[in-house]
Amino acid sequence: MDPLWQWITGEDGVRALSFPFLERLGGVRALFTSRHRGASRLVPVGLNLVAVAGEDPGAVAENRRRALALIGSTPDRAVIAGLVHGREVARVDAPPPPDPHGVRAVPGVDGLVTATPDLTLMVTAADCVPIYLYDPHVPAVGLLHAGWRGTAAGIARVGVERLAAEYGSRPERIWAVIGPAIGPCCYEVDEPVRAAMAAAPGFRPGWLRPGRRPDRWQLDLWQANRDQLVAAGVPVEQIGIAGICTACQRADFFSHRGEGGRTGRQAALIRLVGGRRHAG
Ligand SMILES: [Zn+2]
């Protein structure tokens, strides 16, 4: 049995997790970058991929180039979700025009789907849940960003439905990975978030455990998103949870919660490998 994830290292010391759970199916590459090892000025030697406050845009551009090289791609063949903590998922067939920093982003969405070979989808995060979707039959891929708001809005189901609507994917043929994100060990939430989750599609009580403090709960976004994928028709045995908490594993990953907000962003990346024919 292949491991769900494994570390890979690029030429310049850049490290990322790859996902044999998906890649063994053929025709796809999927990575999750770490904080090793970039040109960031905000986070020393960090592979920060977003021009957050205090960061040098030139360093971010260099880091993006390094991260994309690891998946065999380049910035002009990558498209980034704009991220608004919503549930919109966009179909992309080609990279949009670049902004002044060379970023090709689709604004206003938290998810992307494509069937275009060698177009790399990219979602940045520093605790929020990246969800990778792959239908090897079409083939088509999707990539979602699910914080508590996106999870409460049911973005996992929207992603599966979008693959079905755009490419005729059947949920039972979709494989998924729930990537590194803040885990139930570290994700303490307050009453408004608890209430929003309790009203979320497919809510199960197991998503929330009593917290260590009064009126606080520990939220399990990994399980919530897995349950939502299952409810959307994805077989549970085709869903892998990386089980890596970004707040626990800060030596390897950026964590917004774990580092008091002043940190970088890593990225989930997925691309269909060119050269395969449409399988009908
Ligand atoms: Zn943790």
Core attributes:
single chain, alpha+beta, CNF1/YfiH-like putative cysteine hydrolases, 6-stranded mixed β-sheet, binds zinc ion
Give a short synopsis of this structure.
By secondary structure, the chain is of the alpha+beta class. It has a single domain (6-272), classed as CNF1/YfiH-like putative cysteine hydrolases (4-Layer Sandwich). It has helices at 20-23, 57-70, 148-152, 155-167, 191-198, 221-231, and strands at residues 6-9, 15-18, 28-33, 78-81, 89-91, 105-106, 111-114, 120-125, 129-135, 140-146, 175-178, 188-189, 208-210, 217-219, 239-241, 266-272.
Shape: globular
What portion of the residues fall into strands of 2 or more residues?
15-25%
Distance N to C terminus: 28 Å
Characterize the main sheet. Answer: 7 strands, mixed
- What is the element string, with H for helices and E for strands? EEHEHEEEEEEEHHEEHEEHEE
Write the CATH fold name.
CNF1/YfiH-like putative cysteine hydrolases
Report the CATH superfamily. CNF1/YfiH-like putative cysteine hydrolases
Fraction of helical residues: 10-25%
Query: How would you classify the helix and strand content by structural class?
Result: alpha+beta
CATH class group: Alpha Beta
The number of distinct helices, counting runs of at least 4 residues, comes to 6
Could you report the average pLDDT, rounded to the nearest whole number? 93
**Neighbour order of strands in the largest sheet:** 1-2-3-16-8-4-6
- Total number of distinct structural domains: 1
By DSSP, the count of extended strands is 16
The CATH architecture classification is: 4-Layer Sandwich
Uncertain spans: none
Distinct ligands? zinc ion
Evaluate the radius of gyration: 17 Å
